[in-house]
Design brief:
Strand content: over 45%
Order of helices and strands: EEEEEEEEEEE
Largest sheet: 7 strands, mixed
Structural class: mainly beta
Number of helices: 0
Number of strands: 11
Shape: elongated
Helix content: under 10%
């Protein structure tokens, strides 16, 4: 009932920037929070950043000060602005949301993932 579509991944040089977007669609009544995870080869899945319905944010220590998560509530879209990118940021980035549908059902939804590669 709630679908996520990600965009904005790609190849960037160290020190560069990318902005990821994730748009939620479907029978959405209220989104509790939206967040970004990443999965790198040989590493466990990591929660990168989260933003709640009241605007509070959390970041992993590895990205704090470099990444910024934000939302456009009118568009049901979350963004991840990534600055000062490092090779260790290379991963598949996955968008996730926890929301209530118009039918009063709770949904955990995941995007398909977008690849971010930081390399010279």
């Amino acid at each position: 009932q709630v679908q996520l579509v990600e965009s904005g991944g790609g190849l960037v040089q160290p020190g560069g920037s990318l902005r990821l977007s994730c748009e939620a669609s479907g029978s959405i009544f209220s989104i509790v929070f939206m967040d970004w995870y990443r999965q790198a080869p040989g590493k466990q899945r990591e929660l990168v950043a989260r933003i709640t319905n009241i605007g509070t944010t959390d970041y992993s220590d590895s990205v704090k000060g470099r990444f910024t998560i934000s939302r456009d509530n009118a568009k049901n879209t979350v963004y991840l602005q990534m600055n000062s990118l490092k090779p260790e940021d290379t991963a598949t980035y996955l968008c996730h949301c926890y929301a209530m549908s118009t039918g009063s059902r709770w949904w955990n939804s995941w995007g398909q993932g977008t690849q971010v590669t930081v390399s010279s």
